[in-house]
Every structure is written in structure tokens, then in C-alpha cells.
Amino acid sequence: MDRIRQAIQVDGQKCWTLFETGARNAYVIPSVARLLETSPTPRRIRTALGGAVRETNTAALLEAEVQGRGISTHALVIDEIGRDEDGAPIEILFGALAMQQWGIRPVPDEERLDLSHYPDEFVEF
Fold first, then answer.
1. How many domains are contained in the chain?
2. Which of 53, 56, 117, 124 is least enclosed by beta carbons within 10 angstroms?
């Protein structure tokens, strides 16, 4: 499990983000979701995260900037993600699917993200 912590920009605001390869999906807390387009899900979604089962019925379109590069991905809105190793509250959890979609690779030894595979265009088959 590789993880990197850093702030990303959402609607001009810095949000403390955990890039976590051990998580499949992306999650945001309600204060971030207020900056995003949200929609109800057709049913409640249950997810195990941080040792607890969380439920939501709200999804969000996460539009943000990661190191100056635009991303757009689906995220689930949950009340609380948790705290990082330093005790700071995590506002966004950026999971493996979103990192794969945007060519983001964590480099934990250097505590940074590698965006060298960020797509300039999407080629669909």
C-alpha cells in the first residue's frame, strides 16, 4: 500500500488529500462535496474504510487540480475519512482507480506523486 499526503485544489480551495493505493474508490467529506456537483445514488452504498463501515447515498463529481493538472473523477461522499499519521483530518481520499485513470503514481520513498503518465488525451478503442 503506497500512500502520499498533499493538498490539492478544489474550486480554488486547498483540500488535504490522501493518495492511497490500498483504497479502490475516491471519497470526499461533506465540506468538500459542497464545492462539487453532487447527486443521490439509487441505493445506499456501504464501504469498509479505516476499520469502520460507512454508508452514503450521495456521489460527487470531483473536479480538482493535482499539481496544476486538472482531474475529474467520481467520488462518494462520507461523513468522515479519518486522520493522517500527523493527526490532520483527511478531506479527500484519492483511490487506486482514480490514480490509474489519471496516470498518477505515488513515490513513497520520495514522498511525492509522479504525474509523468498524466494523459494529454484519452484514446478510446
1. 1
2. 124
pLDDT tier at 75, thresholds 50, 70, 90: very high
* Residue 50 belongs to a domain: yes
- Is residue 124 one of the residues assigned to a domain? no
- Which cell goes with 47? 464501504
3-state secondary structure 74-123: EEEECCCCCECCCCCECCEEECHHHHHHCCCEEEHHHCEEECCCCCCCCC
Query: 0.85 exceeded by the pTM?
Result: yes
Maximum alpha-carbon separation in the chain: 44
State how far the Cα of 112 lies from the Cα of 107, in Å rounded to an integer: 5
